[in-house]
Amino acid sequence: MNQPRTKRGEQTKAKLLAAAEAVFAEQGYQAASISRITERARVAQGTFYLYFSSKLDLFEQLVDDLNRRVRKAMSDGAARGANRAEAEREGFREFFAFTAEHPALYRVVREAEYVSPGAMRRHYERIVEGYRDGLTRARAAGEIGDVDPEVAAWALMGVGEMIGMRYVLWPTGDDGAFGSGATPVPDDVFDEMVAFVQRALGTAASTAAAATGQDPTTQHSTSQHSTTERATAHVKEDS
Amino acid sequence: MNQPRTKRGEQTKAKLLAAAEAVFAEQGYQAASISRITERARVAQGTFYLYFSSKLDLFEQLVDDLNRRVRKAMSDGAARGANRAEAEREGFREFFAFTAEHPALYRVVREAEYVSPGAMRRHYERIVEGYRDGLTRARAAGEIGDVDPEVAAWALMGVGEMIGMRYVLWPTGDDGAFGSGATPVPDDVFDEMVAFVQRALGTAASTAAAATGQDPTTQHSTSQHSTTERATAHVKEDS
Amino acid sequence: MNQPRTKRGEQTKAKLLAAAEAVFAEQGYQAASISRITERARVAQGTFYLYFSSKLDLFEQLVDDLNRRVRKAMSDGAARGANRAEAEREGFREFFAFTAEHPALYRVVREAEYVSPGAMRRHYERIVEGYRDGLTRARAAGEIGDVDPEVAAWALMGVGEMIGMRYVLWPTGDDGAFGSGATPVPDDVFDEMVAFVQRALGTAASTAAAATGQDPTTQHSTSQHSTTERATAHVKEDS
Amino acid sequence: MNQPRTKRGEQTKAKLLAAAEAVFAEQGYQAASISRITERARVAQGTFYLYFSSKLDLFEQLVDDLNRRVRKAMSDGAARGANRAEAEREGFREFFAFTAEHPALYRVVREAEYVSPGAMRRHYERIVEGYRDGLTRARAAGEIGDVDPEVAAWALMGVGEMIGMRYVLWPTGDDGAFGSGATPVPDDVFDEMVAFVQRALGTAASTAAAATGQDPTTQHSTSQHSTTERATAHVKEDS
DNA sequence: AATGAATGAGAGTTCATTCAT
DNA sequence: TATGAATGAACTCTCATTCAT
């Protein structure tokens, strides 16, 4: 409920947040009990209420915190790109990396509609806001086609969320249970998805690459699978 | 637990499923209690266990049932389209209509990760399967670009889900609560989204329209924003 | 929460009410826990909430029920009196008898200010109403002096409550703990109190006795139940 | 736990007692938490246990303190009276004034049966002791009738408590909640109550007045009901 | 087929109290 | 003297599920 006023208190609150993230990721918000969280944090149950007024309060603090961090990661990634196309690619790369490292955010937000609609909307809207502003600037700069930034931003959000869910969070097995080691998106899927998005937006490099016949997939460094070259080459041929 | 053996039993089970859908839509799966469902169905609590072995069983039956119906609606919509582009458009139209009419499906599936991962994956995979098969055929027929049908199908699923969430289910106000009357997607947003998808897929008509610069928005009446003019250029030619 | 719909349910609710009265009498409302009540009633904790929506609901039902019964007892007692003075005496006699038998009412009502102010006021006001109506009629009939029925009724209520607390409920010892066997008011105290009240009201017999210098307290023996016949026998002689 | 040894300590303890009185008055003993009390006193929770060994200890210290002060107020009031009748009247006046100013005492004592029966009995017995001694002396002096001082003292206590509760503490509205501004007893009710008591005791002036039939109510202004005329007949003669 | 009473584990939360600083 | 973090037992209440009728 109150902010910690001593170092010890700060540490305790941090322990609780970390434990909560872990427990939420494992069991989800509803199934996670305060007692399991405090147990994992190795504090007494009563201690929880020193720093959070309720389970919901914890939830909202955690979502807001993770949301801030995922947006930071995404914009840092985008900033790393030398051009619009690279910025898009790197933003998504960071998004998936964050998802792999913090599955709690992802899962808990999807569960949040009935828990805290406000927190859920805030989460999506803030990410979309980032997309939208980037798209608006890019359109003004002629780097992308004449898309509606708002609608496109929501569409991008959807693509990222669904691809993330399918390829980052789902276990490879077919048993429907969650494996412990969430894997990042495979390179070929990632490239395919980026190409999908860039065609949808009419991103310049993509178009240019299509025009020049260059294979734009060479521009990224960390590709691990050889199957991705073909990913967006077709665009030119199609047009 | 068993299938009803009499007409009366069938009606009772149907009442329970309808009540469950309504209660789930209002409160979500976790918050919905058997007693609230039986109350709404106007049967005694014990009656519930005549037809469902557990709350989870009900959940899975309901999700599977709604999934079957939404896929039917989508494929009926797509079949109505005279060409590929129209099929895409009409499929989405039905998807959003179904979402507006059955918010329970939507909301409950998002909550389902920790309730029944199997049911959740099955739901998405079945829809994606439909997309994928359609895309595979369309690509073979040269109606769309050279996209990976699997990845593109997941991306489409993501776009549909997110646009549906944002524009069909969220109330217009900013209060974060859910209004009672879910509204279908506004026309201009719908057009913009369809155009986004068609550019991403390289749907034939779309590309052609983009090339000729024609404005085909006259085909539907209620478009409101100027950003949509180019979105569906192909339709005219198609018609 | 709901009324029982079967015989078994009725019995269970009755068991709960009886157990609650006993536990409230022993420990008071605040200290009594639902689990102690259900334990005493030999039902599961959850059963409690079949018939009461909360601890407070139980409290209010119990207070209202006991209030109804104490007023019945008092008015039955008063009706037994052959004249005004006897009616007063017998009403008080029943009040103390009820207090001895149902200490829960007494104790719980005094605790109720912060629990359910409404229930507390209702309790007192209903009893006072009975007094007030009786006094109003008595004054009209010239059986008592010219007192304000409302204020006098509250004063009577106060006398009864305090004498009851002191002489019925308090243990004889000085240790401040509660004995198990609450004793009814000793005869001499009872007579003294009745005389006090009758002087205050100017009850006919009392005044007459005062005038003639007789000591009306001598008229009765120490018996409590069967000895009452003669209790107000003098009244007639006095008048 | 210990008595404060410094000026600062004394102030802190005083702050705690004042805060406790306020919180008890607002919420009652059971609902009042140490943390709310220390919060209101603007000290840390741990500080509480420097001066009180437990919540119960605080309770008993507070009750004893307030008891001392109410008895002082009452006996000061009584001493102001020029004769027996006036002493009675002024004692009650102070009692109600104290009740209005310190509702905590009143309310908390009624709640105390299960909290600290000892403190409760002590509270009542000390006040009754004062009444009893006064009545004993008055009877010896022939100022009142031949009443049993002990029983009459308890009856007076009851009258005072009930009238105080009804007319001082209860809000005028019918909503059953407590208003913030407790009002002292209205004049007419006060007069009526004093008359009731004086008739019960056979206070000299009262009897005399009754005999002469004089109306002495003109002495105070706000009398509202006609039923009070005869109530304080003696006063005139006394003045 | 249908009822509704009964269960009991487990949830979130509060609180008087202790203790290291 | 004063702080505030930490404790853990105990509380009220909910719920999916079982069972006798």
UniProtKB/TrEMBL annotation, chains A, B, C, D:
GO terms for molecular function: DNA-binding transcription factor activity; transcription cis-regulatory region binding. It comes from the Bacteria. The keyword Transcription applies. Residues 33-52 bind DNA. Residues 206-226 have a biased composition (Low complexity). Keywords: DNA-binding, Transcription, Transcription regulation. Pfam families: TetR_N. The keyword Nucleotidyltransferase does not apply. Residues 10-70 form the HTH tetR-type domain. Residues 206-239 are annotated as: Disordered. Residues 227-239 have a biased composition (Basic and acidic residues). This is TetR family transcriptional regulator.
